[in-house]
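We emphasize that the prediction below concerns an isolated chain of 274 residues; any contacts that depend on oligomerization or on bound cofactors are therefore not represented. The input was used exactly as deposited, without trimming of termini.
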Amino acid sequence: MTLLSIVQMNSQNNIEANFSVIESLILQSKAQGASLIVFPENFVCFAAGKQRETAARFEEIQQRLEQLAHQHQIWIVAGTLPCPFRPDGSVIEDGRVRTVSLCISPERTEARYDKIHLFDVQVGDAVGGYQESMFFEPGTDVVVAKTPFGNIGLMVCYDLRFPELALTLRARGANILTAPAAFTYTTGQMHWQLLLQARAMDSQCEILGAAQQGWHGEKRQTWGHAGAANSRGQLLDIVHAEGAQLITVPFDLAEQNAVRASMPLMQHRVLLNY
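Result of the prediction step, given as a C-alpha cell string:
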C-alpha cells in the first residue's frame, strides 16, 4: 500500500508566498508518509492577466520544484503552470500559453501534460463568462507517467467532464488519475465531488482531485474541497475546511486489480456507432 497526498490551496499572485505554503505542505505530506503530493491548478501563481509573465519563468519554477522533489524525496504532480512553448520546444507565437501539469520524481521531470479541454463557459458568478481559449492553446496528447507505485494518468480541471479522456488513460495503463483544479464556486458546488466519483467509477482508477479554494482577487471564487475517490468510485476523503489543507489517502494496487477483475468494464465495453 502507498500513501498519496492531495492539496487544497488559496493561491494568490505572490509567487514567493505561494512557495512558502507549497514547502509547508510537502513537509506535512512527508510527515504522513506519502510518496506523492498533488497540487492544484495555478498553484504557484493565481492571477488573471499574469499568465505570460509567469510563463516566462516556467523553466525556473520547474527547476525549483525538481529541487523540492529531490530534497524531500517525494513525487510531485505540479498542479498547473503556464508555459510559453509546446512539448516539442516550439514557441506559441500568438501570445497565448499552455496550461501544463508536470509529474516530477525525486530525480527529474518524468512527464508533461498540456490541458486538452479549455473552459469556454458561461457561469452565473461574479466573473460571468470564462474563455480560456483566448489566453491558452489546447494540448493534444494523452499522457501517462510511470511511477514505482502505479501509472498516473494526468488530467486538469475541465478535463473531468469528459469521460472519454479518463477511459483513454485507463486503456493506456493508468492506475491513478490526477486532477488539479480551480473549479468555480458555482460549478464546484454542483459537480466537483460527483465528477471525481464518476470518473473513478468509469475508469476504475483512483482519482486525486487537488483544488483551489476561496477568493483570488475581488471577483474569482473557487470551490475547493480537495478530494479522492477509489477504484470503486467511493469517496475516500474530502476537505471541508477553508484555506491550505492536505489529505492523505491509501492506494493499493493489488486491491485495484481485484476490483477490475471482479467487474471487467474494459473488456465489456461496446463501442456504439449511432
